[in-house]
Amino acid sequence: MKNDYEAVVGLEVHIQLLTNTKAFCSCTTKFGTSPNMNTCPVCLGHPGALPTLNKSVVDYAITLGLATGCEIRPFSIFSRKNYFYPDLPKGYQISQYEDPICYDGALEIELAEGQKRIGITRIHIEEDAGKSIHDVDIDTLVDLNRSGVALLEIVSEPDIRSAQEAYQYLMQIRQIVMYLGICDGNLEEGSLRCDANISVRKRGTEKFGTRTEVKNLNSFRNVERAIEYEINRQIELIESGGTIVQHTMLWDATVHETKVMRTKEKAHDYRYFPEPDLVGVSVSEEWMQQIRQRLPELPLARKQRFIEQFGLPKYDAGILVDEQSLGDYFESVVSKLSGKTEESYKLVSNWLMTEVMRILSERKIPASEFELPAEFIAELVDLLVTNTISSKIAKEIFPQLLTSNKSPIELVKEQGLAQISDEKLIESLVKDILSQNSENVEKYKAGKSNLFGFFVSQVLKQTEGKANPKIVTEILNRELNNN
Amino acid sequence: MNPIETVEYVAELARLKFTEDEISQFANQFQNILSYIQTIEELDLEGIEPLTHISQAENVFREDVVQPSLPLEDVLRNAPKRNESFFKVPKVL
């Protein structure tokens, strides 16, 4: 970005809620094998069919509102947003207009230079439309399985100043809604959708430039790329003497460009009016209190706690909290450690980030479905920290933990894998090795100091890798250098 | 917007076509309705919340429990055209 310009970006994020049923009818939200399987007179928009609000939808809206520091409106109503499109069978979308259920919140995002607060203007409840398919038949095909599925729309303040910040904001929303268990966070499958309002202005000016809206940002990379592209397009246009026109743009992921969407000449007029078929929603203090008590620790707070409580590096903490159940698994392992030291915590983190995460990604499962008991990892780390086994042996027995159903201690006993830390024993081994290699000892004493490694490896070889290398080194040092 | 333009605008939004006679007839009727509504503006409504529903009811909820959907054949029964189990409509893109 040219340095004398700054971007002003606001995001509208739609999240699809993980309710069992749709917002206003009892059809399942699971996508059936066939189109239109999960529909009924309400979500098909048949005349006379009446909507009834799903209580969980309100519950989830309040949950997200409280988690993002929003005010919760004591009384709110639904409105009809009127427009024609084949995948909107009623001819209107039930939404909230003037008085969204949540408003005036914020969330923190993490940037290289520290945390930044991004304001949330509003969060409101609405229903999804169906799906139009344009490329299978000569005509348009319509599947209404998604029609009426509950969404929350989260509108940010124009506090975002770069594509990178937009990316971080979206990641943070995704993590939060997944932690809250209200959305599966899958951007590619459309459970999380994002539109961006973008303008640029000269640094130091207060007035916003003319903005464009960019739609179709269906992956995290696309969000960043599309916003970056649109910011640069606007700056170049202004620099070359042009003016920004308030268009709706579509991101084309195949050619990496934003393009003007074919829009009608007249501005959209949705003719919002109160939905007469649904009564208002009133949220009591008790209801909010119940939800407040259920709120989990949020990812960023948890990350901070992992850094402070366990002395973990920022990088480790970030990875461990990214997926909630991995963080849970970490805490479970840590709670079962006999030695609760920062050294042990870091070792647990290392095992989870390497061996455990490798298996999880191979099997494509979350940590909650990982069968290895947390005790086993804790035991393994305890054995390492007390020098009972070497890290080489630990790596060797790890796969056996998964297949044998035996604990690390059992395996170590059974196979005689315990590390030899007995100083007397190691001393006698060292003396044997040195007397068998008297020629090399002479060379070493004559200055060929790299032979030290040779002696260490000989002792380890003698013990099949079980001798504690630290003690071997100490004793060798004493024997070779002090005599 | 004059009354004729208003009728034309609303008709366009509703995708409806009318003859000139119909439009001027509706324009008159719109005028009557609007001036009738305008009498409300003579009232002092300071501090009165807009009334959106006549009913006093609130929080009418349904539990989040799945009920059977409509059988597919019933879903598609009134569809003028279909392709397998899709509704088929004139090309829109």
In short:
With 483 residues, chain A is of the alpha+beta class. In chain A, 41% of the residues lie in helices and 19% in strands. Chain B is mainly alpha-helical and 93 residues long.
Unreliable parts of chain B: none
**SS summary, helix count of chain B:** 3
Radius of gyration of chain A (Å): 31 Å
Shape of chain B: flat
| Number of continuous helical runs of chain A | 15
**Overall average residue pLDDT of chain A:** 91
Secondary structure elements and pairings:
The complex is a heterodimer of chains A (about 475) and B (about 90).
Chain A: E1 5-16, E2 53-54, H1 55-67, E3 71-72, E4 75-76, E5 79-82, E6 92-95, E7 102-111, E8 114-127, E9 131-133, E10 140-143, E11 150-156, H2 163-180, E12 192-202, E13 212-215, H3 220-239, E14 248-252, E15 257-260, E16 273-274, E17 281-282, H4 285-294, H5 299-310, H6 314-322, H7 324-335, H8 342-363, H9 374-385, H10 391-404, H11 408-414, H12 423-436, H13 438-445, H14 451-462, H15 469-482
Parallel strand pairs in A: 13-14
Antiparallel strand pairs in A: 1-11, 1-12, 3-7, 4-17, 5-6, 5-16, 7-8, 8-11, 9-10, 12-13, 14-15
Helix pairs in contact in A: 2-3, 5-6, 6-8, 7-8, 7-9, 8-9, 12-14, 12-15, 14-15
Chain B: H1 3-13, H2 20-38, E1 61-62, H3 72-76, E2 82-83, E3 86-89
Antiparallel strand pairs in B: 2-3
Helix pairs in contact in B: 1-2
